[in-house]
Amino acid sequence: MNVLLTGGTGYIGSHTAVVLSQLGHEVVLYDNLSNSSDAVLEKIAQIVGQDFPFVRGDVRDTELLRNTLASHSMDAVIHFAGLKAVGESVAKPVDYYANNVQGTISLLQAMQAQQVKSLVFSSSATVYGQPQYLPLDENHPTSATNPYGRSKLYIEEMLKDVASSDHGWRIACLRYFNPVGAHQSGLIGENPNGLPNNLMPYIAQVAAGQRSELGVFGDDYPTNDGTGVRDYIHVMDLAEGHAAALDFLTKTTGWHAINLGTGKGYSVLEMVGAFERASSRKVPYRMTSRRAGDVAECYANPKRAGELFKWTARRSLDDMCASTWRFQQSVELGGS
Ligand code: NAD
Ligand code: WQD
Fold it and tell me: What's this model's pTM, rounded to 2 decimal places?
């Protein structure tokens, strides 16, 4: 299949490009490089042994997208492009709605014009808001507590309308839980600019000695050790989930929401312990107050993905930590 990956040079996009290419798909990457670098292109080419066509562009540039879909005879699109920092979305809501919602409208216009009607969308478990029950299945009510989450929710609703307006559309909204880890080569991974927002890259930087200690956001949650529990999923499992979603869309039409998670939760302190074992380094930490908007526990019911995609996450927490550490070390040696 010929597949366009918007946001393809980003963290999840680059790993998905590797998996799809190794499965024999023709992949084209499209990215404005606002949160990634074209140095990734060389790394993924090194992993798979061939170059990837790349278009530098914004998803709000409908004409460029349309030309890209046409010139590469695209069959499907995986839409990763967007902004993703929750705190920043509260400060800059217009940027978030412009990149995420307007960007998706522009993509849909280009797809409609070219009659490309298969779409996999990067949604998030954030659309479940405050969990009313656990594990979270796809029928759990949706809500949003910040502009980032709201942008994902609006897009999901928009895509539902598109699918009901024309039964030729095939749309999968993949609700990711907490993606972590890196490709086993250590060549690509998550390398955030500035202070990491997320736990795993923060732990990795503390283990590497780049930061002195981890602040643990709250130790008084009703969990085993009082710290927050999340469903961490290896980015390579997630990437394989996208390949399974594409396959699923060849056999079905309509709009579908599917969780991509493991179904298992780990606390912050369990993550620290696992990373210490994988890296043989100490990760000093200090308990601090709760972070506004955090929930005690969040983990998936991954049953639907198993049934529809014949996909299940298979990599362990040790794999997640070991691959993150390998990538962190390659970054220190001057990698991207
Ligand atoms: P990322 O920032 O590494 O990748 C996103 C890519 O999109 C970047 O390369 C960026 O340059 C590009 N981009 C942003 N706005 C663009 C625009 N207007 N036009 C063209 N390119 C644009 O993030 P990621 O972690 O790979 O996330 C990919 C998607 O998955 C995002 O939509 C994100 O919201 C979603 N998601 C991520 C997580 C997570 O924790 N990483 C969890 C749930 C959902
Ligand atoms: C995990 C746990 C923190 C940092 C966010 C977004 C969500 C999704 C994934 C995109 C929590 C604790 C963290 C630190 C800590 N992204 N923590 N010290 O909050 O589950 O989800 O990323 O869709 O929308 O909200 O992930 O990695 O930030 O936090 O103690 O320095 O680690 O309190 O319990 P989160 P996270």
Answer: 0.98
